[in-house]
Amino acid sequence: MSLEVVLNELSFNSLAPDINTARDRVSNLIETIILVQENAKSITPYTHYEFHSTVLAPDYFLYSWLQDKAVDRDAQRFILTLANKPFTEDINTENYEFSHEGEAAIGLGVAYLLDALSISLLSEEIWNCSCLSLDVTKIDENEELIEEKIELLHVSCSNHVIEHTDWIQNCIKIEIRDGIELWECQKDLFPYLEFCDVVQKQFHNIKRGQLELKLVKEALIQLDRCCQNWTTGFFSTEGYSLEVSGESKPTIQKYSKERTFRCPDGQKRLFEQHIKLKVCNWRIHFFPKKPGEKIIIGYVGRHLPTENYPT
After folding, report:
1. Half-sphere exposure of residue 32, counting CA atoms within 13 Å on the CB side?
2. Which of 14, 118, 241, 299 could form a Cys-Cys staple with 285, CB 3.0–4.6 A?
3. Domain for residue 66, yes or no?
4. In total, how many domains does the chain have?
5. Is 76 exposed, middle or buried (0-12, 13-18, 19+ CB in 10 A)?
């Protein structure tokens, strides 16, 4: 499975004082991305739309760098391969606003939505860190405004990549090509989860290349880790990159049947708690029984009807 990496456009805002410094910065960026690629085997890069028009130094643009005879031609070819997937393409950010240190941060926001690795040009000391804070403002399904500060995994030099090596390799440890393979590998991927029978068909409907495949897999991996560490008290996903909520009373009163599923032990349960998958309008409904027992997954698919959104 390819690791998604997203270029932080804010890191290009600080211009190099001269062309030589600009060349050095881009060389460092290339070395960093290549090291990520070596660890991940394959990457899917996202850049901003005007990537080639980026200004690197006074009167020296990225397209100038691409034509610069003092720059290695292989390096130029490598940069050209990065610009084939603008990060606002096919990524729905409609209900979100993202900022870093008060500046709008679309690239970092996309990295958050995709659970991807953010990468910066090391143009300022602010980008010389292995994690970045991101302010996220979003509108939930009840049309309420929610604000939170989250931490993003981030690299801008080889040392940061080395620090994240285990995370990078775990992301691509088991290659899953479609929902059928996801179901077949469930015991290896999610040893602390168990699944209702209806989920098998829902997994099988996830096709190869479908965006939801990665999102479902990553969310369930996070939930599995959360269950593994749940030893006492009430179940909580605090500290994990999961967006979890319950249902409103009017929704439960009207649509409880749609959220009730037969579990592996034969008992029918109401699956009120659910994970909201970023980017797409999908939900994962789950039921935590008690510490030390597996969490049950009852539903994986499109948003179920609610009082506010019946269809």
Report:
1. 28
2. 299
3. yes
4. 2
5. middle
Average pLDDT over residues 100-104: 94
Same domain, 204 and 162: no
What is the spatial distance between Cα 6 and Cα 82, in angstroms, rounded to a whole number?
10
Q: Is the dihedral of CA 149, 152, 155, 156 positive or negative?
A: negative
Per-residue pLDDT reduced to its tens digit, 200-229: 999 999 987 787 888 899 899 999 999 999
Angle at 233 between CA 115 and CA 284, to 5 degrees: 35
> Cα(214)–Cα(104) distance, rounded to whole angstroms?
26
44 domain-assigned: yes
CB-count burial class (<10 Å; 0-12, 13-18, 19+) for 271: buried
Q: Are residues 150 and 15 in the same domain?
A: yes
- Can you tell me which residue has the tokens 């602390």? 192
pLDDT over 70, % of the chain: 94
Q: Would you state the pLDDT for residue 297?
A: 98
DSSP element (H, E) containing 147: strand 145-155
Picking from 153, 140, 165, 49, the residue whose alpha carbon sits closest to that of residue 111 is 153
Same domain, 119 and 72: yes
Do 164 and 194 belong to one domain? no
**Res 95 pLDDT > 80:** no
Class of residue 211 by CB neighbours under 10 A (exposed 0-12, middle 13-18, buried 19+): middle
The answer, yes or no, to whether residue 266 has pLDDT greater than 70, is yes
Q: Give residue 255's domain range.
A: 179-302
Mean pLDDT value across residues 94-100: 87
> Which tokens hold the place of 201?
């068909």
